[in-house]
User: Fold this.
Amino acid sequence: MLEKTILLADIRYASRMPHIPAQRTAPTGLLSDTLARPLRDLRISVTDRCNFRCSYCMPSEVFNKDYAFLPQTSLLSFEEITRLTRVFVTHGVEKIRLTGGEPLLRKHLEVLIEMLAKIQTPEGKPLDITLTTNASLLAKKAQSLKDAGLQRVTVSLDALDDATFRRMNDVDFPVADVLRGIEAAQKVGLAPVKINMVVKRGTNDAEILPMARHFRNSGTVLRFIEYMDVGATNGWRMDEVLPSAQVIERINTEFPVTAINPNYTGETAERWRYADGAGEIGVISSVTQAFCSDCNRARLSTEGKLFLCLFASQGHDLRALLRGGFDDDQIAGAVAHIWQKRDDRYSEQRAALPPDTSLQGSGLKRVEMSYIGG
Ligand code: SAM
Ligand code: SF4
Ligand code: SF4
Assistant:
């Protein structure tokens, strides 16, 4: 069971404030945390359920038929998610990523996307709305997602070799269906499609080059993610992490690549371009090269708790405010208060410890990736 993470007293105190507290602000005049990081990116988990059992995320021994997923009544409604999103936008959020669990399992997700697509930033710009998916339902849903206002998708795919992929998703799901989902997304203009490959040394690192070969010249951006010690159930070990530097080295032997500048401050992926013009790849080096100093991401769990870091063990219960009669200004005040006290920088702190150290066994009950959203 997840630990109760309600910090109501704190939120109630903050939410009595009628206006957003004007304390620390970023150079833009917007909200800023204790490390001068603004709030730009909101990741919203719309379900804690998934039809895959990737061993690094929802190992089947733990997420089995006895696992207590959240009941329907705990989930934030679409109206509640939209209301909170509006509040976050007043604080500078410009980008929304829908995630989970598997977000496409949430019924009528297109309706939520339509509602979010109507929200504008204070400058009158539409929000950048994206979604991360395992693509099992993408071929069927790509057109309706695009019509609802989704701009792009990120698809997770850990191998091209069918046997390796079926083993990694642990539900015998075939690669061909994911590839069909990617094609459908490209066809309807949910582009550029990004492909996320979590690299586990000894499990799928032999797939790095086949994946690179396959997705070169395809208009997609393939990103290699270091296997992370998120949650408390995946049995993470440092020797199963393949550092991004080695991923780049391997690719460079067959296809020379050069580093390119980030698109924006706080981008998680380090970008590389094929020297022969075959497109772009990225590496996300959360373990070997922490990027906390630019981290402008907040995460809203399926049941409305605000998490300030992927590795947090506690969230702040915004659903209690939504359902407790607080108005938008009060909720905005609470969010400001929480963000302004934020000092999370887990990956940087872990990087300062001996190489094999994870806090997974430290007694802190960290939330699972499938609950908080990736
Ligand atoms: N189900 C969707 C999917 O897989 O795309 C969305 C949710 S999933 C939690 C979001 C992302 O987190 C995926 O790209 C997944 O590969 C990544 N992820 C999950 N567990 C991870 C881990 N231990 N290390 C690195 N990435 C992980
Ligand atoms: Fe499901 Fe995504 Fe986690 Fe895999 S990574 S188990 S697809 S939530
Ligand atoms: Fe952000 Fe936490 Fe990841 Fe650091 S460890 S980049 S603070 S989510």
Summary: The longest helix spans residues 175-188. The chain has one domain: 42-314+343-372. Residues 50, 56-57, 99-100, 102, 132-134, 156, 196, 198, 225, 227-228, 230, 234, 369-370, 374 surround S-adenosylmethionine (ligand 1) (CB under 6 Å).
